[in-house]
Amino acid sequence: MSRSVVVFGALVALGLVLGAYVLGYQTKHIGSGRSSITVKGLAEKPVRADMAEWQVTAVAYGPTFAETVANLRNEKSALESFVASQGFDKASVRETGETVEPRYEDQVVGEQVRQVQNGFVGRHTQIVSSRALDKIVAAHRSALDYKASGHNIEYANPSYLVSGLEEIKMSLIGAATDNAKKRAQEFVKHSDAKLGAMRSASQGAFYILPPVANASTEDYGGTYDKTTIDKIARVVVTIEFSLQ
Description:
- By secondary structure, the protein is an alpha+beta fold.
- The protein is built from four helices and nine strands, in the order αββαβββαββαββ.
- It is elongated and about 85 Å long.
- 18% of the residues are buried.
């Protein structure tokens, strides 16, 4: 056997050893890579509003500033009597200041439409807050008859609010975390992997929804429905679990 053949054989053997070492290191490195699964968990429960707010505004008009103020104060007094007749004391009512502004109307002049002042308009708002939701509901219904009797008012639907939102949220986070774990276990049930420890967790949106939630819940910041007395509280969490 020539010396060149021996040298060549030694080089080939050395190459195989080095190759095996490098391959083994890469396999180990790849095998030790981090494997995980990220899932979302959901929890919800019914909640009920325990506070309501209703805003009603007396409106008055007049040809002059002074007459508008006088008319507004008459409407303000009438509105106070109406609110009191619905069973609300003064402690339940917050009032805004009186405002009087020029009143403008659209008028056609030639081929143009211009805004022309036509006297003044005054407004005074009362905000009723109460835990007696039935009284708020009744007052809102009675407002139509009050307006039909000749009083000019503006009003919207009551806002039904839930106290202790932070406590409600905290009570749902644990259940949402359990839900996320169950979902992760379902994913890995038919695989060779096993679910490991939690690596990270974050709370997503917090929703207060009507009982039949038609509104979109894609907004990360959540939704707060104030139109219904009975609601659904919902929390979404995102959990990352390691895989073994």
